[in-house]
Amino acid sequence: MRLAKLACDHNLSIGCRNLGVFYHQGSSRVRNYQKAIEPYVKGCSGGDMVACSNLGVMYQYGNGLTKDYQKAITLYEKACNCAYPQGCSNLGFMYEKGLGVKRSYAKAVPYYRIASDYGDPQGQYNLALLYYTGISLKVDVPKALSLFKKACESGYEPSCRNYRLIKGQ
């Protein structure tokens, strides 16, 4: 944490992001959402798209600040537009669930595809679900299995469960 704070104090965006992650996602004894906000803002302003996306998550769920879907969407768009795949996946989720926007699977799919193409396991998982269920996409079980397997190979456990269930293992 000391190195991340020192790096952030010297305006290194990745240091700010790491400091934000430490407070945002750290163990319960160090988790402090309020302290995560400033380094995330500084990191995002400095061009770190992970910090932008993580700050979006905080707005989406109201971690340490008032829940604000519009701010989350803006941050996810910024991250996605700069090729950060988890930002794209998060943006797709907002459209799929209708959080701050009109619910639209048709708008969610392209964001999930981008995230999936860049190797984001959550994007692969969400896209696989749509292929498997036929929601907004033609049912394609082999494609769904392929995506579940890719996400599983990246360690995304929900995808592993679905892959095993579908394969009958």
Automatic annotation (TrEMBL):
GO biological process: response to antibiotic
Catalytic activity: a beta-lactam + H2O = a substituted beta-amino acid
Enzyme class, UniProt record, top EC level: hydrolase
GO molecular function, one term: beta-lactamase activity
Cross-referenced SMART domains: SEL1
Source lineage: Bacteria, Pseudomonadati, Campylobacterota, Epsilonproteobacteria, Campylobacterales
SUPFAM superfamilies, sorted: HCP-like (SSF81901)
Name used for this protein in its record: beta-lactamase
